[in-house]
Amino acid sequence: KTEKDHADDNPYEIRAYLPDLMRSFGKLENGLQDVLNNNKRWADTSQLKEMRFFDKLENEPKLYWIGCSDSRVPPELISQLGFGQVFVHRNIANQFKTDDVNSMSELEFTVNHIKVEHIVVCGHTKCAGVKNACRDDLGKNLVAWLSDIRKIKDVHPELFPDQETLSRMSHDEIDRIQEILVEVNVADQVKKLSTNDIVKKAWEDEKRKLAIHG
């Protein structure tokens, strides 16, 4: 069926679709203006207006997502969830920082006010933040932000081979080490969340549904 035929079946149904995952900003003829035009066309879709799509959206998600800022891992797309379903916090290497007002205020808001049922810490392979956390040429802000990952080196030095050792390793061996480091980093963030006073207080309520997933 054509797009028009599908629309005739039910004019109020918006069918899920997979966007062009290889569409590149660099290939847009007019750069940012094309992005703005795309957004306007999407927002002006007659189906959205007829069903008062934006008016009906509620910000009462059951899932709080802490993920990496990497542009290749958009939460709604890889989870296949719709608008209003995920409360998202993204930063370099999916960190939860107790000394960061942004991290703590979002945790307080999602747990105490939205009352989410699931907190997801989502790491990913090929994470540049994890891979480069211990480089000597990082500026002070990145050193501070990636401090948790840098501390992993004290416990798991085998995950941080020196250049000579790296030169003798295969690509598969290097990839596997970095995958393990990603997993350890996720586990560390889950542990910090699990021992946070906001979460522990919520868990004191036996009727409360709240789980943390790494």
TrEMBL record:
Protein name: 10525_t:CDS:1
Source organism of this protein record: Acaulospora colombiana
